[in-house]
Amino acid sequence: MKRFVNFFKNDRLWQMLVALFFAVVLFFTAWSGNTQNKNNSSSASNTFTQTVESVPVDIKYDSDKYFISGYSYDAEVYLTATTQLALTTEATSDTRHFKLVADLSNLGQGTSRVPIQVKNLPAGMSAQVSPSTLTATIGKKASKTFDVVANITPDKLANGYEVKKVSLDETKVEVTSSEDIINQIDHVQAVLEGDDNLSDDYDGNLVLQAVSSNGTILASSFSPAKVHAKISLRKLSKSVPVKLELTGNKASNVSSISYSIDRGHVTIVGSQEDMDKIDSITVPVDISQVTKDTSKTLDLTAEGVTVQPSTVKVNLKVTQKRGS
Fold first, then answer.
1. From CA 283, how far away is CA 306, in angstroms rounded?
2. I need a labelling partner for 201 at 20 to 30 A (CA). Which of 38, 42, 70, 175 fits?
3. Are 259 and 246 in contact (CB under 8 A)?
C-alpha cells in the first residue's frame, strides 16, 4: 500500500503516464478522422456526369388567347447522378423522366423572361440548365388566310438544273400568329427543306414560311402545316463548237499537218452563269513528235461545267517534205 501511494507521489512518473495517455488518444482521434475523410472523398468521387443537348422546353401559356414568339425551343442540361444507370436513363430522351418547363401562364402581352425549371428529376440527381432562363414575346393571337407561292431557290437544285414547273395541291393556307406579326406578313412561301440538291423531278411535301416585305421569316403556325407539290426540272445545257489548236513545231521532215475531228459541237451542262462564260471549247494538240498520220483521243473540259461527250477524236494527216 505504501508503494502504491509513493507511486502517485512520484510527479515525474505521473506526468509521463498522463502524456502517454493523451498521445494515444490523439493518435486514435486523428486516425478516425482520416478514415472518415477517405470515406467521404470516396463517396463524393462516386458520381457520374453528362451534358445533354437539345432538351425541349415545355412552355406553359394561354394558347387560346396568346401566341408566343422569339424564344428558344430547347436548352442544354448538365446532369449529375450517383449511378451510371440513373444518368443514362435521364440522358436518353426515350427513357427520360425529367422535363424542362417555362411558365408564362400568369403573364400578359409583351416580352418577358422566366426561369427554366427542372421537373420530375429523380432523387439522387441534380441538374443545371443553360440558359437558365427563357425570353419570349407574348402577343394577342390572330389568324388570316394567305395565298401560297412556291419558292424553289437555285441552291436546292443540282448544278445544271432549273425549275420547269411547280404545281401545289393547296394554294391557300390559314396563318396563325400574333396580331403584330400577322400585320407584317407580305406572303407565304412553300420551300424545300433539308440540304439535298434536286437532280430529278420531285413529288412530296414543302414546308411553309411567312415572309415580310424585306424577306424576314416570321414566327407563325399554318393550317395545313405543309403543302404537297410536284416539281418538274429542266436540264440547263448549251451547244458550243470544238476548236483545235496545234501547238509545238513540226518535225524537220514534215511539210504540213492537216486535221479533222469526229464532232464539231458538244453540249455543256452547268449553271447559266458558268455557261454564259463559254462560247467554245479549245483543245490543244502537240504536233512536235508527229511524223506520220495518226489519231488521238483527247479529253474535253471547261471550267464550271460538264462536257458531253467528254472526248473528241482527232485525225492528223501528215505531208512530208520531198526527198524525206
1. 15
2. 175
3. yes
- The helix/strand/coil state of 259 is strand
Instruction: End-to-end CA distance of the chain: give it in Å, rounded.
Output: 148
306: Cβ contacts below 8 Å, ≥ 6 apart: 160, 268, 269, 270
Q: Containing H/E element for 284?
A: strand 281-286
Phi, psi values for residue 7, rounded to 5°: -60, -45
Q: Is the alpha carbon torsion for 284, 285, 288, 289 positive or negative?
A: positive
The mean per-residue pLDDT over the stretch 114-142 comes to 96
Q: Rounded CA gap, 258 and 100, in Å?
A: 80
User: Residues 205-226: pLDDT tens digits?
Assistant: 999 999 999 999 999 999 999 9
Helix (H) / strand (E) element for 297: namely strand 294-299
Looking at this protein, which amino acid is placed at residue 70?
G
Q: How far apart are CA 120 and CA 295, in angstroms?
A: 80
Q: What is the DSSP letter of 154?
A: G
How far, CA to CA in Å, does 230 sit from each of 146, 150, 197?
20, 10, 15
Q: Could you give the C-alpha distances from 282 to 240, 265, 266, 267, 312, in angstroms and in order?
A: 10, 11, 11, 14, 11
pLDDT band at 37 (very low <50, low <70, confident <90, very high): very low
- pLDDT tens string 67-100: 999 999 999 999 999 999 999 999 999 999 999 9
